[in-house]
Amino acid sequence: MKTRYQIIKIGEDNPSYNEVLNTFYYHIEELGLTRDSVLEIDENNFRKDYKANSPSFCLYFGSDSVSFKNLDLLETLIDDANLILPVVSDLTQFKNQIPKCLHSVNGFELASHNDIEKLVSNVLEGLSLLRLSRRLFISYKRDESSTVAIQLFEKLEKNGFDVFLDTHSIRPGEPFQEELWHRMADTDVVVLLNTPGFLKSNWTTEELAKANAMSIGILQLIWPTHKQERESELSMPIQLNDTDFGNSQYSKSSSYLKSNTISAIINQVESLRARSLASRQDNIITEFIASSKRVGKKAILQSEKFITVNNGDGKELVVIPTVGVPQAFTYNQSEELVARIKSKNVKEVFLLFDHRNIREKWIKHLDWLDNYLPIKTIKIVMAEEWLKTL
To answer: 124 FRET partner, CA 20 to 30 A, in 195, 218, 223, 276?
Structure first.
């Protein structure tokens, strides 16, 4: 895989770490990933293998030692805006067990075997590997690749993806174009079936342009005898051969892919999703933090992927960057997240999202929810104006 999820362990050795890893791998295999999709990094291979542009989650294990380990690696990870979770045996001793540079980050108490599942859940959330957050969009031309599109839809669904396919996913009576762009705004990867007539359709050309504009990863499956189109050079291409198809037949809408080819495609989808997800998350976080600096506000990225902002009265505002469309599940996750935050200093909680290409009815719905729910929303394009009011 070209891009892998990085789980980074630094600080002191911890006797529970092997069990943490085993539990982590158990859950990612439930999601249809293989162990090859994860790169384990520690102090021994950090300089050689760590990649700043790959999705990463770091566990820093503390101790009662006055001489903390791996401070140089920690500085690199902080500079790269990585998610870092300080892990201690006793939260009441947090500042004694963790370096000063992590004192502003909420820690995790790993006091017994019973805490391991909860710790692994934090890692999975930090890497956005939970089942309900794995969204994918298939773009294709019906009269050239409908059978392959359905094949991919069914197999990717079985591998834990929430897949959008227009013939299966748009209910009767819904406005087709609005729903199309709305669902694309809520996806991590577009699988583009590049058949000879694909870009001759206005719909498919627009889908490609939208995906590029939103920094969504595009996996382009190029049919035999066809070449990568210039308009889609930013995507990851896979050139298919006639041997990838059943009976070597690829020129009909009923043509289908062999199972080993489907498996290889799913492996590439996961790799590209990791890159795309990291890019979209970085974009919204970076844009918000840059806005905060311009107006003189201090925004701190926490290990659980939320941002804290001090509003001047000693209390913190929590801002949770959200990729895609905030939904009931997002609000529920946020409430659970708030419960894990050191709560008494938290004044308000906000979901930060990019509203462009989201259906107007959803925007109005979110605005309406702001009047009734304790968690409010902020559109990223309005973040700077919002920060000025604090």
So the answer is: 218
